[in-house]
Amino acid sequence: MDIFQTTSDSGILTLTLSGRLDADTTAKFSEVLGGCIDRGDRKITLDLGALDYVSSVGLRALIVGQKRLATLGGKIVLCAVRPQILKLLEIAGFTSIFPVAATREDAAELLR
Amino acid sequence: MSSVTVLLGNERAEIRRLGEIAEKFGADERLSDDESMAINLVLDELVTNIIDYGFDDTGRHEIRVTMAVEGGTLTIEVEDDARAFDPLAAAPPDLTLALEDRPVGGLGIHIVRTVMDTVEYQRRDGHNILTMRKTIGRT
What's the CATH code of the domain at A24? Predict the structure, then answer.
């Protein structure tokens, strides 16, 4: 899995994930996300446009991040989610705890 | 009927190998993307769980996975000699809870039960056998 970080002018951090978020790769993702929260990022967009697969290990890392941010007044918004991944997020009940936006611009609106 | 049986050791590296075999099975059987992802998810969740939590010793164990398509039915069977564990005994997660009350785990078996139509557990001769079926529609 690859993770690209970008920060926009309005203080929103965007992490772009590609490939698989599974038992092999989730530790790396958690480390990156945790590091961003540690250094003060509170508004985070996860761009999942190039993410092919998420297992329950990856889902757990997502909810851990969202819970931690909630206690700090922050939030993760997901964007560009592929249909199959979106279906999985619905099965896992994540669409009620993660705002899902079509584009990064829409995600930025939800984080304002 | 076409079927593939894979024997796996109880180590994490085997999960990737299983994923590749499952992907090839899905392609050979002309399964839809949804059906292929269902197989991937089911095997990933179950086998990761067995390898990470199933064994009390550090010895080598074998996990047997069979994928089969017959008529319009996909069958997946996972057999292991790990300690007795009926994943169906767990209560389904409450997905209406607010974020702060939501547990972080317990989603794996819920996903398995949701993407497959039926899931049956048996404990036989010291083995756990989980048999799952799903109706598939070829396009």
Answer: 3.30.750.24
Interface A:B, Cβ pairs < 8 A: 60
Mutate to test the interface with A, among B46, B96, B102 (most CBs of A within 10 A): B102
- Distance (Å, whole) CA B113 – CA B107: 10
Q: Quote the CA–CA distance of A44 and A46 in Å, as a whole number.
A: 6
Number of domains in chain B: 1
Domain of A107 in residue numbering reads as: 2-111
First-to-last C-alpha distance (Å) of chain B: 18
> Which structural domain range is residue B21 located in?
2-135
Query: To the nearest whole angstrom, how far is the Cα of A63 from the nearest Cα of chain B?
Result: 6
A22-54 residue pLDDT tens: 988 999 999 999 999 999 999 999 999 999 999
ipTM of the complex: 0.87
pLDDT at B138 over 70: no
- On chain B, the residues whose CB falls within 8 A of the CB of A84 are 33-34, 37
For B35, the 3-state DSSP assignment is: helix
Inter-chain CB proximity B96 and A70 less than 8 Å: no
Instruction: Give the domain CATH number at B18.
Output: 3.30.565.10
Structural domain total, chain A: 1
